[in-house]
């Protein structure tokens, strides 16, 4: 994949983003709202908050909305009319840029793409992903909840970013990768100065606090271990960990309608809800929050990696930062790696 390297001043980066907006790109960036920071559409560069580590919630909803209509239906005489929801998606986001997120968030897209293109190609996801260009900014101060380095990434990883920026004083260096990144900057090249790869700042030596392979080894052999039941007794099953996570992607499909018309919708769901696995018979194979959190761990760090060769976690730490019960997944993964 073609990769080019550039330098751009802070002033020109502002001009670049403002030009994208005036050229009708929908630019989504970390933005202050209600005393916190969330991804949202910006009307100018100045609305973006590039100083925070991470927005409270990931940008997942731009790939998999909280709720979306798959199709509308109506009955006419003996016929059924179907209006496919995909047509609306195709026209919805032709030019969308996620600007100013971090490398962990950028990595989530290609990791999720694998499950959305496995036995069934999810055209809703694919249409949105195809039209999304990711411009990330490397971190220099990860917090104690972060563990991207343990998840085979790093605060400077370019995996999933079409453009990765690294800040150096009042200028930025840019690694621009592939067709999406190169075509995004093509009309604005006068703002960028091309440099040789050797001038792009090298990554720091980020240290790991545990080995995820050891955690995986534990999960391979200890499904019934008492750790799961004891450690998650305080979990209240609120699902915040899954809703704020950039890689959790479980959904539920519902029909809403009457005898004349209706729609089929899909909504985010969560493996942390008791009802998630409740059978019609009343039997529930996952009785406790320990069973449910164990499933979250098994899915992310065993099952997904065996099937798709990637862990279903980018180490952003959101599930820990947002958990009302202070359950810290980094501590959990470290504990498990040491129980081997
Ligand atoms: S956010 Fe915390 S309390 Fe809520 S379901 Fe997740 S682990 Fe349990
Ligand atoms: S499981 Fe937690 S740390 Fe991993 S990607 Fe999801 S929110 Fe981030």
Please give a structural write-up:
This protein has 340 residues and is α+β, with helices and mostly antiparallel strands. The protein has two domains: 1-67 and 75-204, no CATH class; 209-340, no CATH class. Helix content is 31%, strand content 24%. It has an eight-stranded mixed beta sheet with strand order 3-2-6-7-8-9-1-10. A four-stranded antiparallel beta sheet has the order 5-4-12-11. α6 crosses α11 (329-338). The two termini are 39 Å apart. The chain binds iron/sulfur cluster (2 copies). One iron/sulfur cluster (SF4) binds at residues 235-241, 272, 323-325, 327. The site of one iron/sulfur cluster has 12 residues, from α10.
Compute the number of strand runs. 12
| Helix and strand run | EHEEEEHEHHEEEHEHHHEEHHH
Strand content: 15-25%
In terms of per-residue confidence, which ranges show pLDDT below 50 for 5 or more consecutive residues?
none
Number of domains: 2
Judged by helices, strands and strand pairing, the structural class is: alpha+beta
Query: Could you tell me the radius of gyration in angstroms?
Result: 22 Å
How far the N terminus sits from the C terminus, by CA atoms, comes to 39 Å
* Structural shape: globular
Mean pLDDT: 96
Query: What is the count of helical runs?
Result: 11
Tell me the strand order in the biggest sheet: 3-2-6-7-8-9-1-10
Helix content: 25-40%
Write out the distinct hetero groups bound to the structure: iron/sulfur cluster
| Largest sheet, strands/sense/barrel | 8 strands, mixed
């Amino acid at each position: 994949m073609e990769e080019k390297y550039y330098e751009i001043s802070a002033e020109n980066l502002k001009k670049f983003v403002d030009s994208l907006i005036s050229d009708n790109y929908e630019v989504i960036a970390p933005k202050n709202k209600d005393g916190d920071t969330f991804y949202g559409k910006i009307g100018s560069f100045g609305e973006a908050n590039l100083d925070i580590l991470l927005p409270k919630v990931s940008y997942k909803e731009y790939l998999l909305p909280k709720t979306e209509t798959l199709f509308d239906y109506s009955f006419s005489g003996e016929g059924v009319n179907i209006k496919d929801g995909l047509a609306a998606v195709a026209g919805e986001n032709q030019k969308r840029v996620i600007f100013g997120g971090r490398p962990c968030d950028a990595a989530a897209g290609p990791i999720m793409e694998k499950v959305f293109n496995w036995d069934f190609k999810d055209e809703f996801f694919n249409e949105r992903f195809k039209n999304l260009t990711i411009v990330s900014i490397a971190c220099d101060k990860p917090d104690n909840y972060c563990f991207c380095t343990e998840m085979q990434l790093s605060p400077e990883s370019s995996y999933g970013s079409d453009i990765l920026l690294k800040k150096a004083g009042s200028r930025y260096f840019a690694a621009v990768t592939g067709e999406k990144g190169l075509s995004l900057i093509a009309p604005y090249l006068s703002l960028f100065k091309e440099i040789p790869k050797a001038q792009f700042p090298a990554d720091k030596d980020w240290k790991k606090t545990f080995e995820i392979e050891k955690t995986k080894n534990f999960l391979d052999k200890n499904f019934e271990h008492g750790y799961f039941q004891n450690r998650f007794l305080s979990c209240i099953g609120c699902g915040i960990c899954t809703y704020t996570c950039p890689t959790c992607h479980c959904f539920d499909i519902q029909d809403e309608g009457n005898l004349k018309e209706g729609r089929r919708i899909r909504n985010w769901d969560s493996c942390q809800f008791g009802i998630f696995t409740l059978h019609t018979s009343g039997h529930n194979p996952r009785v406790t929050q320990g069973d449910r959190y164990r499933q979250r761990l098994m899915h992310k760090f065993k099952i997904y990696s065996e099937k798709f060769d990637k862990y279903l976690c980018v180490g952003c730490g959101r599930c820990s930062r947002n958990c009302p019960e202070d359950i810290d997944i980094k501590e959990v993964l470290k504990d498990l790696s040491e129980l081997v």
